[in-house]
């Protein structure tokens, strides 16, 4: 697997970030598996950019906490090209249509944004700005680094442990290609590493509370996806990343 790591990293950047990787890369089983294994590394890169930005803005400028929160939220959107927010909007439109599963999936595939998608975007973006502005001046930059890593670990578990609701689309294609057991093993290893880091940074009580909230929320989201959509889609993965990161910021605000 080691010889596929480089290609996996490039694929992960190509599909899950805005960083320009304009190459035709192989996507056989080993390459797709390596791509997903590298997702927490992508989270680490993005978290590193956010942590550095927070450090510079709060320590080297006179920017208000609200401005820092806005700029960090804008930066996080820019690094993914709005990919996850697009999934959130599509998921909100589909769920709040209150239609049958098949019709919800059709609505999710509609490129147009509806009222509920717009509301979900406004609430999520505004919520992030407000919560980050309330925490950014006091929170450790290491915690800022960890948030995108944790969300990508959760994404790995959701990907490997939940069937796709459609047989078509990128999510279904990747799930058929990937070695799910290997990805799960790497995700669990990442959880151990991140858990140790959080406990060191926040103390064992706060650290365990954060991890338990993350795991429970991920489990409940999986149940929700299965009940309302018959599985997961690429849009639901995007909605998960946005939702779990917002939850982590809320946990930091109130408990760390």
Automatic annotation (TrEMBL):
Coiled coil, from the record: none
Membrane-traversing stretches: 36-57, 113-133, 139-159, 180-201, 207-224, 236-255
Subcellular location as annotated: Cell membrane
Pathway of action: Cofactor biosynthesis; adenosylcobalamin biosynthesis; adenosylcobalamin from cob(II)yrinate a,c-diamide: step 7/7
Keywords: Cell membrane, Cobalamin biosynthesis, Magnesium, Membrane, Transferase, Transmembrane, Transmembrane helix
The protein's enzyme class: transferase
GO CC terms, sorted: plasma membrane
EC assignment: 2.7.8.26
Catalytic activity as recorded in UniProt: alpha-ribazole 5'-phosphate + adenosylcob(III)inamide-GDP = adenosylcob(III)alamin 5'-phosphate + GMP + H(+); alpha-ribazole + adenosylcob(III)inamide-GDP = adenosylcob(III)alamin + GMP + H(+)
Membrane topology: Multi-pass membrane protein
Record-level GO BP terms: cobalamin biosynthetic process
Pfam families xref list: CobS
Cofactors that this protein relies on: Mg(2+)
GO molecular function: adenosylcobinamide-GDP ribazoletransferase activity; cobalamin 5'-phosphate synthase activity
InterPro entries: CobS
The family this protein is said to belong to: Belongs to the CobS family.
Function: Joins adenosylcobinamide-GDP and alpha-ribazole to generate adenosylcobalamin (Ado-cobalamin). Also synthesizes adenosylcobalamin 5'-phosphate from adenosylcobinamide-GDP and alpha-ribazole 5'-phosphate.
Xref: HAMAP family: CobS
PANTHER family membership: ADENOSYLCOBINAMIDE-GDP RIBAZOLETRANSFERASE (PTHR34148:SF1)
Name under which the protein is recorded: Adenosylcobinamide-GDP ribazoletransferase
Organism: Planococcus halotolerans
